[in-house]
Amino acid sequence: MMILRINDGDNVAVAIETIPEGAQVSVGGETVTAVTEIPAGHKMALRDLAAGEEVVKYGYPIGHTKEAVRKGEWIHTHNLKTGLGDLLTYTYEPTERRELPAREAYFEGFERSDGTVGVRNEIWVIPTVGCVNNVAGAIAKQANAYVKGSVEEVIAFPHPYGCSQMGDDQEHTRTILADLIHHPNAGGVLVLGLGCENSNIDVLKEYIGEYDADRVKFLVCQESADEIADGVAIVKELIERASVLKRTKISASKLIVGLKCGGSDGFSGITANPLVGRFSDLLIGAGGTTILTEVPEMFGAETILMNRCANEQLFDKTVTLINDFKNYFKSNNQTIYENPSPGNKKGGISTLEDKSLGCTQKSGSAAVTGVLHYGERVQTAGLNLLSAPGNDLVAATALAASGAHIVLFTTGRGTPFASPVPTMKIASNSGLAGRKSNWIDFNAGTLVEGGSMEDTAEELFQLVLETASGRKVCSEKAGFHDMAIFKQGVTL
User: Fold this and answer.
1) What CA–CA distance (Å, rounded) separates 12 from 1?
2) How far is Cα 373 from Cα 30, in angstroms, rounded to an integer?
3) Which of 367, 376, 466, 469 makes a 20 to 30 Å CA pair with 54?
């Protein structure tokens, strides 16, 4: 198969492999001759298109032609432009609900004293402020020598914030730090403060609320004669307590998985993202929860999500989610549709609509049951939408902070990054999976090579359960653990 028309209503098809100029391909029983070379992952016109005519992919418009386009011609950024505007008015037109097949599934996880469950039993060192990042790193490095039992690793999560911030920007930092302190993947947490910062430990405790004093410990560096030695001693205590904890059989209804994409290409919306959408449906069918984020990459496909909201209140929240992010761009005098990225374009994505219609396929077909502010922890099982930007590290951290035990990250270009939780990389094409096996955990590229969506989704579902039960993903094996907070305000 050299080319694929995704939807019968599309007037473009996607090249599965590079199609040379003059080559003939068959689409829907009709032969089309490529009048220009069509790179793999890129689009070819299936009929003559007039200047200003809508280009349709996935069954939806992805922009307008800048000029007349011939049948068989390459369609990309040189002759296609976005059709999106600024703020829009939306109407709730709920789509017909599809019942997801119910199933039972289990993983081996750690039960916590507050009733939550974790898929890892790590000790986390969380600085309140960037000034003590190196101290946190030194504590974690030394304390790893004392890891034993079921404790897997001591990890420091440095960040540059916690002081010199104002307003919502400061509030968001405090909220994210408090979220991570509560995260059940950590069997123990050392909160490391400096002492004079805006978000000092006493202030942060107001955001943390109730906590298990055996699991969460605090150290103020300015009050310690040797903060590294004292920090290591505290972490040793945390290791002793957590090391005796055992994995137990837990229902997949307790599992929360974040959905994210980055470095997308023309195959992402055909293979990896629909596959993750099918996974999402499987997990929700088992009573579990998924979280979709990167709001700017919903622009152009947002009505699909809005009309899948379980009720009008959630629809209104989703409208606010979208328009608040558009206003964020406008308030900073930035173009709302400054997307896709250079890597996206090289891979075959031409407009934001093109990217968003592929991106939102990670949501599957389930109803939207929750809409979350940045830093808000998930409360409702099923599909949740989370306010966060498209930036990979910031969005993945936001997913973890909202409660995701694992993040599924689809990519057509590849990336080695991690997040505070296991971050599973899913390749959209077999070339990437073969070339970067040290980054990629699962290959969705087989879906255009004869693979069955049903079988591949079940294979991914089982891999996620294995990961929740302790199997390490590539980034964990490499020792990568990243954390990034959404910077939105003035720095003093």
Assistant:
1) 16
2) 48
3) 367
